[in-house]
Amino acid sequence: MSLGMTIRDLRSKRNMSQADLAEALAVSRQSVSKWETDSAVPDLDDFGDVMKRASRILEAGLGLLYRLEVTIALNILSILQP
């Protein structure tokens, strides 16, 4: 399951709108939408902080979100490597 699908599923289980989650994370609704469609990931400078806040708000284990973070990092590295 991708990071976007995980965020969407956890948000839906808590009956939160994208706008609700965005406000709680101090990001734009458009950012949440892009994350959920795997069109973008949180800014790398803020990724750790956003994921920590998301894990509290969505009541998801940080380990789950961390594993997704590692998967994303590996995917980015595989794209960037020649």
Description:
The chain is globular, with a radius of gyration of 12 Å. The model has no long low-confidence stretch (mean pLDDT 76). With 82 residues, it is mostly helical. 70% of the residues lie in helices and 0% in strands. It starts with a helix and ends with a helix. The protein is built from 5 helices and no strands. Helix 2 crosses helix 3.
Number of helices: 5
Give the averaged pLDDT, no decimals: 76
In this structure, how is the largest beta sheet organized? none
Structural class: mainly alpha
Along the chain, the helix and strand elements come as HHHHH
DSSP, total strands? 0
**Approximately how much beta-strand content do the residues carry?**
under 5%
**C-alpha termini separation:** 26 Å
Shape: globular
Low-pLDDT windows of residues: none
The whole-angstrom Rg is 12 Å
Could you estimate the helical fraction of the residues in percent? 55-70%
Topology:
Elements: H1 3-13, H2 18-25, H3 29-36, H4 47-57, H5 62-80
Quick overview of this protein structure:
With about 80 residues, this protein is mainly alpha-helical. It contains five helices and no strands.
